[in-house]
User: Fold this.
Amino acid sequence: MTRRSFHRAPEAERRHELIAATLDCISELGLKGATVREIAARAGVTGGLVRHYFETKDQLVAAAYRSLIASLTEKAENLTGDPESRLRDFIVINLTEPVANSRSLSLWAAFISQVRSDPVLGAVHREGYLAFRDSLQGLIADFRAIRGLPADSAICRQQAIAINALMDGLWLEGCLAGDLFADGELIEIATQSIEALLGLSLTARAGVAG
Assistant:
């Protein structure tokens, strides 16, 4: 366990540090074990300072979940290059470190167990899911357009839902039993499956249907 030493920091930086410490605690100790005292100790601050930024533990946990989901959406939104490259990179990013590892699995398990019973976490989950799916839908729309195919929202939405579900399943397989797969095997499976869903090759030249 890493405990940060205290230092004075701007408000945004301090909030970020508290959220990071919260995610560390939850990944190792679960939601119940992530007490305000433990979070404060890991962040190198007092419990009173934690409550200065977050009135309750529930507020801090919700902020941590929102930050976790936002980091995934940000990765999808910040992809660069042509549409084929961005879609291929999307696959790789979501099936490799640091998105796919035991820490991510522990965090997912902790939060997902509460989204049906906690309205606040449920709302954060829904908001995050839609943002992530919308980013994927945009990637698909760009990819279809460059291949000269219709990129209307109905088609792209359906394909985004299907691809998101596929990626979720492969991500879970990799996190739970990554040692059962050869290096790059899940990425290859994902690529082939997504190509089948799209009816297009991810490596074909622009304007040439797969």
Confidence is low (pLDDT under 50) at residues 205-210. Residues 1-55 form a domain with the Arc Repressor Mutant, subunit A fold (CATH 1.10.10.60).
